[in-house]
Amino acid sequence: MKTISVPGLVRIKPGALARLGIYLRRAGLGRVVVLASQGLPPAVLAAARDGLAGEGVEAVSSRETADNRFEDAAAAFAALPKKVAAVVGIGGGKALDMAKYLAFLARLPYFAAPTSLSNDGFCSPQSSLTMAGARRSLAAALPQGVVIDTDVCLSAPRILWLSGVGDLASKLTAVFDWKLAFHHRGEPVDDLAALLSDATVHQFMDNPSFDAKGMELLGTALMLNGIAMEICGSSRPASGSEHLVSHALDASSARPRLHGLQVGVASYVVSLLQGGQQTEALARLFTVTGFFDAVRADPFSREEWLAAVRRAPSVKDDFFTVLSLRDCLGEVRAILDNDARLAGCFAA
User: Fold this and answer.
1) 40 vs 115: CA distance, rounded Å
2) What is the pTM of this model?
3) CA distance readout (Å), 132 to 26, 68, 69, 101, 184
4) Coil, helix or strand for 241?
5) pLDDT tens across 10-68, in order?
6) Which of 87, 93, 156, 258 is the most buried (most CB within 10 A)?
7) 293: Cα separation from own chain's centroid
């Protein structure tokens, strides 16, 4: 029988960050290491720090981090104080990836407290780190606790929320690619993981609002997508051809953008390559949330995207997607040039 580890504590509500100490104390975790994103608003850090101190939870080590280097994570593991009970990550992607991987190395419980919802990384079974300057996805464990303060997330720049919307929406094309791999290669599909991934997207689509309820739904959906990956033991429920395009952009673009913005636009383009079954749903979501407008405010390079599409099929070995079926470059070129919804999203 397969066993998986999922978060036992989930708090997605206003004021949750200030109650972090309560959650840790209830779990009997009195000594913790805290890694926080560099540049967080002082009030956010104070809420977490005061919440810990007020419940007698000692932060035996607390530092801000701006990078996600494997070498730094290994050094932090080597310098880990004795008798630490848990690792807490507060902030955005890099700090959370570092905290998650540190906890994985030390075999300690990890508590994730994202202060924005720009992607699903806060609750995924992998850590995205750089190793010798190259980006790597390394095995890690899901958090034991997820603490999302919807008020704090609402105070973050709206572009981060839009990035989360794009990352969530990309699950639709990712699951399509997964099923495509089954039909063409016989790759097994975990039906529960696929269903969970799909369902979370549609639940958010019913209320894609930039308010407390919309933030709660987005946080829940992104978290459940991380659990879907844990269920099936791969990134398939959350990552398909749209992610390959984004990874290619990360490697070659002069100025890579937020992950969710890249995979969101790529998901819309890929949906057309996949036959258009998801296209209208994605278009409605990206229009009503202002996602397309945000991309138009800082358009992508058309030539960089075409180069990324050309490179994408070779980004990940033995990863079958719609890009594996045929040479899609000409189709993508026509989409970028002629699709009315993408008008203004790409510059020459």
Assistant:
1) 9
2) 0.93
3) 40, 11, 8, 17, 36
4) helix
5) 999 999 999 999 999 999 999 999 999 999 999 999 999 999 999 999 999 998 988 88
6) 87
7) 21
